[in-house]
Specification:
Blueprint: E1 3-8, H1 16-27, E2 31-34, E3 43-47, E4 50-54, E5 67-70, H2 78-88, E6 94-97, H3 105-113, H4 115-121, H5 128-137, E7 153-154, H6 156-165, E8 170-173, H7 197-204, E9 211-219, E10 221-224, H8 236-242, E11 256-259, H9 262-272, E12 276-280, H10 282-285, H11 300-313, E13 317-321, E14 329-331
Parallel strand pairs: 1-8, 1-9, 2-5, 2-8, 5-6, 6-7, 9-12, 12-13
Antiparallel strand pairs: 3-4, 10-11, 13-14
Helix pairs in contact: 3-5
The chain binds guanosine-5'-triphosphate (GTP), inosinic acid (IMP) and magnesium ion.
Inosinic acid binds next to α5.
Length: about 325
């Protein structure tokens, strides 16, 4: 059962990009498949001194032997994809499903001009909501109708099943996160689709029996962009004082922040059937952990925090991020 899934546990931007990029070398996947909504996501991947901001290309792109696929549930904006290909140069390894929905300029215009979407929901303005609206109406264009994409078109579920039948490992990467789910999130302050592990499987076309691990990513504090409830939200001054200031990858908006929420984490583990936890940004809550790569070098209070997460959720903390670089990661528990 060699499929591993990576999902977000809070409101997005937990650092899924970094975790995906880090685990590729140990997992050795033959395929990295991107699920999730579409280019409303912004994943940051830092390899050496280079920072990549990715909205569509899978975050494990630098793992050179892997085929990179975008599942039929994911919306594609050809202009965004073109720019990312210029930077990542992975054209020869990329496959886009025939049935991916296409975001056109009119969808972006509708997303940014609609008062409800812009002001009440506070969307990313990337056109995803209006494109999914058109998909539900069955009037959205699909990738197979777009000449610019013809070289990349493929049957993503078909490729995944061929790999799974051979016993190869596939890594499925989600975007957004549990509480942005249209069904399980803080409606109406959510995205235009479900975002939990069940949906992620549907996004790429594989069923639950193939799943080996569901890695849920939590940041060591909670952030949220856009509108909607955030328990124990801190003031902008307090966010700055704690050094928790972040700006959205796609929109540049200041991310709202609050301390780690154990109740949200517990529920999220259940909603996703998560098997392992990755905690990112430990260094921002416990600065003495910055750059630490061995469990033995963590401070006692940081260990206690991680153990509390394990106790409350009932599953192990497997990976811990101590800095933005893919290499600034440690294994808190062995596999
Ligand atoms: P979405 O799919 O948009 O939800 O994004 P994401 O989960 O991939 O996260 P995103 O890259 O938007 O935000 C995470 C931010 O935290 C980025 O700036 C990362 O470089 C940074 N980051 C990730 N892990 C760590 C860590 O362990 N420590 C520090 N200091 N920064 C980290
Ligand atoms: P939309 O997905 O652009 O329609 O935005 C709906 C809500 O989800 C807004 O609050 C966005 O800020 C939020 N959102 C969508 N994608 C992401 C993401 O990748 N990270 C964080 N928030 C997101
Ligand atoms: Mg992001």
């Amino acid at each position: 059962m060699p499929a591993t899934l990576v999902v977000g546990g809070f409101f997005g931007d937990e650092g899924k990009g970094k975790i995906v990029s880090h685990i590729t070398s140990s997992l050795q996947p033959t395929i990295i498949a991107r699920g999730g909504v579409g280019p409303n996501a912004g994943h940051t991947v830092v390899i050496g001194d280079i920072t990549y901001k990715l909205r569509l290309i899978p975050s494990g792109f630098h793992f050179e032997s892997a085929r990179l696929l975008i599942g039929p549930g994911v919306l594609v904006n050809p202009a965004v994809l073109r720019k990312e290909l210029e930077v990542t140069k992975v054209d020869h390894r990329l496959g886009i499903d025939y049935q991916c929905g296409i975001i056109e300029p009119q969808h972006i215009e509708r997303d940014t001009k609609d008062k409800h979407l812009r002001e009440k929901v506070g969307t990313s303005g990337s056109g995803c909501g209006p494109a999914n609206e058109d998909r539900a109406k069955r009037i959205l264009k699909l990738a197979k109708e777009i000449p610019e994409l013809s070289d990349f078109l493929t049957d993503v579920p078909g490729e995944l099943h061929e790999a799974l039948d051979k016993g190869e490992t596939v890594l499925v990467e989600g975007s957004q996160a549990t509480y942005l789910s249209l069904f399980h999130g803080t409606y109406p302050f959510v995205t235009s689709k479900d975002t939990t592990a069940g949906q992620l499987l549907a996004d790429v076309g594989i069923g639950p029996k193939h799943v080996d691990d569901v890695i849920i990513v939590f940041k060591a504090y909670v952030t949220r962009v856009g509108e909607g409830p955030l328990k124990n939200e801190l003031s902008p001054e307090e966010i700055q004082k704690r050094g928790w200031e972040e700006h959205g990858t796609v929109t540049g908006r200041l991310r709202r922040a609050a301390p780690f929420d154990f109740d949200l984490a517990k529920r999220s583990v259940k909603l996703n059937s998560a098997t392992k936890i990755a905690v990112t940004k430990l260094d921002k809550v416990f600065p003495e952990t910055k750059g630490v790569t061995r469990k033995e070098d963590l401070s006692q209070r940081a260990v206690e925090f991680l153990e509390q997460i394990e106790e409350e959720t009932g599953i192990p903390v497997w990976l811990v991020g101590t800095g933005p670089k893919s290499s600034e990661t440690l294994h808190f528990r062995e596999e």
